[in-house]
Structures are given as structure tokens and as C-alpha cells.
């Protein structure tokens, strides 16, 4: 242990460990954590030795179990999946990488330290001056009633703590707004005298829904981008900073302005990079592979885990200007994955109540962002009643009406018009696309060819150009990625990327660049 840390509180922080972790310090278990993709930590002050070596061990259980999030050991829709089952057996279509996937930190903290900061910005009527409202909480084990300081630019404000919590405000005159193309960040400094200091880069922006449009800083915006995965050969889902930088360059090159963190929270480094690059993020929890037709105790268990994951994600990412919306689940299903229960059935109603409780929690914890979830084709439309915008995964031209492009265009248009008439909200197609083998060509365009992928993307972009309520297109996927072995996945890969797994552009990437950079 660093000698200068003596007298401080010592903590360990793990960026992500899938799926269940036990942490030991010098042979003593100091804590456990369930669930991957989000950070956790423990106070280990009383377990460290000074002047001699310390041994820290993290035991990670990566077993795929139905009662974990995301569920494992079951196929899509529950059960063994029959002849469509893959190996490893998962309820989702990406490889179940496990282990310690992100950085582990040993941290020295003063006895009284800043535990949490929440920043909310608001404009005055002129739109030129911005007031930042800041709430600061010190570590909950101590009631700190002293003063602190807020600093931003040349502005300073006093924080008066009562029972460990303080509220403060600062006004920035003629503030520059944050957004794609102009990702202005301001450095906010929170100080507890000379005891502790926390620096936070904040962006000033508003996001909301007005009628059937999405609005960023008071102007209408259309999301252009992708679903992604943390996946790369050699590093799997492990944090890979060079790939993170390469992906940001490719997003800028292709003209995208956004992506969804499908189907789990991405690294904190990814969020920080999006803040700096001006990339809009739909931030998703690990609630993928949910089935409401499963045994009641299992559904209740998933509900408990989803509530905890939603709260943890918002606590981690609430201050990132890049995060404009929370996605509380991906493709939940009632009944068979390919034959969902009818709307109004007891199982369908259970699913609606389950999802609405997560939406309600997200709004309670953060009223400044929109909330939605990725809706499965065929799932009940009444599940969409409470969302702020409609987010749908639709594969017309691939899983539905594969090869029949004209029929696929008609079916897509009919469903979009029906959803818009029913709900009157902005619609984002959060997944669409076609598997494409790199270098495979066909004339006329046929499934699996690069030409066919272009045509599928083209008719979606054409529809969005003429229907403003289609407020976002997130193509599936940014890059080819590994998944389980199975007869539906050639070479254990999902080839729907517009880039290959090693980030080489397919024909579709050049097509998108020509459309999105106009």
C-alpha cells in the first residue's frame, strides 16, 4: 500500500465482472456482486496490511444461469431452443464473454469524501445564459455539515452541507451548447475545502420529445447511427481503447451522430469519448432475453435484477451529456420468441406491468431524459403506451419477407403508419438490417450479398426522408460480431455489420456515407 494513503479510506473498484464476483483481501471475503457490465466497489480499509504485501483476489463465476441478467442456459423464448438452439445456450444473439472485462482500481479516499454529484442544467428565456444546478453528497457514513465550493469557468458558489448533502447553482453567461458537431464541455470542480476534490466535464444541452419529433437544444433532430457491441477479435468484450478510438473515427467518417449501447452498458471510457466527440447515446441496461411466460419466481427474480440494473446505470451515467435516453430492455417477449402471446392475455399484461415499472423507476431517478425499450416484432403494441418514444426492432426483408424487397417495403410502411396513428410519438427503428458476407456479390441483389444489404438500408432511409415522425434509424449492426455456434449463424458470427469485425467497410458503409454526409 502507498505509504501516503495511511489514514485514508481504502477501496477497490471493479469496472465489470460477469456474472458473479467475490472479492477477497488477504484471504478475507470483503463483498460480492451480481451482474456484469456495471462497476462495483468495496471499502477494504480494515483488511489491508501496511508495510507488507497485500493479496487481492477476485473470483468470477461465469456460469450461464436462467436466474441471471441476462439469462443464460436457456434459448430464445425459454427452454432449450430445439434445433435452433446455439452453443453456448443463451437467450440473446451475442457471445457470452465473461470474466473481468474492465479496469480494476485501488483507491485512496479521505475520511470525508465526495460520494455523489448530480448536475442538471436549465436555460433562461433568452437561451443564452445557463444555470447549472448541482447536488453533492458526501460518503453516507458521515454527517458532514461543513461547507464546500463549486467552480466552473470564473464562477464560484458556496456549498452548504446539511446531513451530508448540499445544493448549489452557478450561471454561465452566453453558454455554448453541447451537441453533434459542437461538443463543448465545461469543467466543473467540486471541493470540500482542502479535503477532497472532484472534477467533472459537463455539457449543456436539452433533449426531449415534442409531439412526434425529437428535439435537441430546441431543434428537431433525427438519430442516424447503429446498434453496436463491445466485441473484437482477441479482446472479446474486454476494454480495448484503440478499438474505441477507431470506432469513433469510423462513426465520424460515415456521418453517424448516435448509437445504442446494445444490449448492456458500455464502458465508462466509451461514455466519456462520446461526450468529447458529440455522439448521442441511447443507454441500455443488460435486460436482454427476458421472457414473461417463464415460471413466476423466475420472472420476479428478473424484475428484481432489472430494477437494480436500471438504478445502477442511471447512477453511473446521469451526468453524461451524450446520454439522451434510457433503454430499459431489449426485445422482451411473452410466449415463444417467434410466436408471442396476444395483447390482453394474462402473460402479455404481466409483461406490460413489468416494463412500466422500469419506465416509472427511470423517470423517478432522472426526469431529464427520455425512456423507451427495444420492442420485438410481434410483441404487444400496448407495451408502448408509457414510453416517451417508440423504439422497434424490425427485420422486414430478412427474418420477415426475406428476399422479397417490394413486399418488405410495403409491410414496413404499413406497420409504421399504424404505430404512428395509434401512439402519435416519434419512432426510432432501433434495429434493422441484413446479414452480409464480406465480398459476396450478386446481381440482381440476393440475400447475404453486399448489394442486398444496401437495398435493405436504402428503403429504410428513403422512408425516413419523407416521414419526419421516423425520428431515428439505428442499423443493426455497426460491425460484424461473434455469437454462439448454431445453424443460423455462419462461422459463429452475426454478419449484419456495415463494417467487418476488423473494421473494414462493406459496400453498405460507403452507401451510408454518401447519404449521411450530404
Tell me what the structure shows.
This protein has 518 residues and is an alpha/beta fold. The chain has a domain at 114-207: Sandwich (Immunoglobulin-like). 22% of the residues lie in helices and 30% in strands. It has helices at 241-254, 268-277, 296-317, 346-365, 405-423, 450-466, 507-516, and strands at residues 9-14, 17-18, 20-25, 28-34, 40-43, 56-61, 99-100, 104-109, 114-123, 130-138, 147-152, 155-160, 165-172, 178-179, 182-183, 186-192, 196-202, 207-210, 213-216, 219-220, 223-227, 258-260, 280-284, 323-330, 335-336, 339-340, 370-375, 390-393, 427-431, 470-475, 481-482, 493-494. The strands form ten sheets. It has an eight-stranded parallel β-barrel with strand order 21-22-23-24-27-28-29-30, surrounded by five helices. Helix 1 (241-254) packs parallel to helix 2 and helix 6 packs parallel to helix 7 (507-516).
Write out key terms for the chains shown:
518 residues, alpha/beta, Immunoglobulin-like, eight-stranded parallel β-barrel, four-stranded antiparallel sheet, 30% strand
Question: What is the topology?
Answer:
Blueprint: E1 9-14, E2 17-18, E3 20-25, E4 28-34, E5 40-43, E6 56-61, E7 99-100, E8 104-109, E9 114-123, E10 130-138, E11 147-152, E12 155-160, E13 165-172, E14 178-179, E15 182-183, E16 186-192, E17 196-202, E18 207-210, E19 213-216, E20 219-220, E21 223-227, H1 241-254, E22 258-260, H2 268-277, E23 280-284, H3 296-317, E24 323-330, E25 335-336, E26 339-340, H4 346-365, E27 370-375, E28 390-393, H5 405-423, E29 427-431, H6 450-466, E30 470-475, E31 481-482, E32 493-494, H7 507-516
Parallel strand pairs: 21-22, 21-30, 22-23, 23-24, 24-27, 27-28, 28-29, 29-30
Antiparallel strand pairs: 1-5, 1-8, 2-7, 3-4, 3-6, 9-10, 10-13, 11-12, 11-16, 14-15, 16-17, 18-19, 19-20, 25-26, 31-32
Helix pairs in contact: 1-2, 3-4, 6-7
Amino acid at each position: 500500500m502507498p505509504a501516503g494513503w495511511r489514514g485514508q479510506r481504502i477501496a477497490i473498484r471493479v469496472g465489470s465482472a460477469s456474472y458473479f464476483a467475490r472479492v477477497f483481501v488477504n484471504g478475507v471475503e470483503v463483498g460480492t456482486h451480481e451482474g456484469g457490465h456495471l462497476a462495483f466497489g468495496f471499502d477494504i480499509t480494515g483488511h489491508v496490511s501496511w508495510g507488507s504485501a497485500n493479496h487481492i483476489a477476485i473470483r468470477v463465476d461465469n456460469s450461464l444461469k436462467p436466474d441471471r441478467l441476462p439469462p443464460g442456459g436457456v434459448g430464445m423464448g425459454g427452454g432449450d431452443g430445439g434445433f435452433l438452439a446455439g452453443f453456448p445456450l443463451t437467450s440473446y444473439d451475442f457471445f457470452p464473454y465473461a470474466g473481468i472485462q474492465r479496469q480494476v482500481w485501488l483507491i485512496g479516499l479521505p475520511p470525508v469524501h465526495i460520494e455523489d454529484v448530480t448536475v442538471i442544467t436549465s436555460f433562461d428565456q433568452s437561451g443564452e445564459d445557463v444555470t447549472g444546478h448541482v447536488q453533492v453528497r458526501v460518503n453516507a457514513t458521515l454527517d458532514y455539515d461543513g461547507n464546500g465550493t463549486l467552480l466552473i469557468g470564473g464562477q464560484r458558489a458556496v456549498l452548504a452541507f446539511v446531513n451530508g448533502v448540499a445544493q448549489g447553482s452557478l450561471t454561465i453567461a452566453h453558454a455554448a451548447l453541447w451537441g453533434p458537431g459542437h461538443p463543448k464541455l465545461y469543467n466543473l470542480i467540486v471541493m470540500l475545502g482542502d479535503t477532497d476534490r472532484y472534477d467533472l466535464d459537463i455539457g449543456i444541452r436539452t433533449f426531449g420529445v415534442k409531439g412526434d419529433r425529437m428535439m435537441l437544444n430546441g431543434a428537431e433532430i433525427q438519430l442516424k447511427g447503429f446498434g453496436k457491441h463491445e466485441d473484437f477479435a482477441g479482446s472479446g468484450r474486454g476494454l480495448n481503447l484503440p478499438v474505441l478510438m477507431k470506432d469513433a473515427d469510423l462513426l465520424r467518417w460515415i456521418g453517424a451522430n448516435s448509437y445504442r449501447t446494445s444490449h448492456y452498458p458500455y464502458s465508462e471510457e466509451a461514455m466519456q469519448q462520446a461526450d468529447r466527440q458529440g455522439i448521442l447515446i441511447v443507454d441500455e441496461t443488460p435486460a436482454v432475453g427476458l421472457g414473461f411466460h417463464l415460471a413466476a419466481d423466475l420472472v420476479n427474480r428478473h424484475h428484481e435484477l432489472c430494477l437494480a440494473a436500471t438504478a445502477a446505470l442511471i447512477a453511473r451515467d446521469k451526468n453524461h451529456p451524450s446520454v439522451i435516453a434510457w433503454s430499459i430492455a431489449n426485445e422482451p417477449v411473452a410466449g415463444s420468441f417467434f410466436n408471442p402471446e396476444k395483447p390482453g392475455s394474462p402473460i402479455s399484461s404481466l409483461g406490460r406491468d413489468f416494463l412500466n415499472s422500469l419506465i416509472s423507476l427511470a423517470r423517478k431517478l432522472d426526469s431529464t431524459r427520455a425512456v423507451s425499450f427495444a420492442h420485438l416484432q410481434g410483441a404487444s403494441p400496448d407495451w408502448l403506451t408509457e414510453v416517451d418514444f417508440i423504439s422497434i426492432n424490425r427485420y422486414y426483408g430478412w427474418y420477415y419477407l426475406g428476399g422479397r424487397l417490394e413486399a418488405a417495403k410495403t409491410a414496413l410502411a404499413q406497420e409504421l403508419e399504424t404505430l404512428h396513428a395509434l401512439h402519435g410519438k416519434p419512432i426510432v427503428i432501433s434495429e434493422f438490417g441484413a446479414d452480409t458476407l464480406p465480398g459476396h456479390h450478386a446481381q440482381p441483389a440476393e440475400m447475404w450479398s453486399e448489394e442486398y444489404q444496401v437495398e435493405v438500408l436504402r428503403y429504410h432511409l428513403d422512408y425516413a426522408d419523407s416521414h419526419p415522425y421516423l425520428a431515428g434509424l439505428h442499423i443493426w449492426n455497426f460491425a460484424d460480431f461473434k455469437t454462439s455456434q448454431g445453424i443460423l449463424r455462419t462461422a459463429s458470427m452475426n454478419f449484419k455489420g456495415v463494417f467487418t469485425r476488423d473494421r473494414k467497410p462493406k459496400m453498405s458503409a460507403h452507401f451510408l456515407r454518401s447519404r449521411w454526409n450530404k
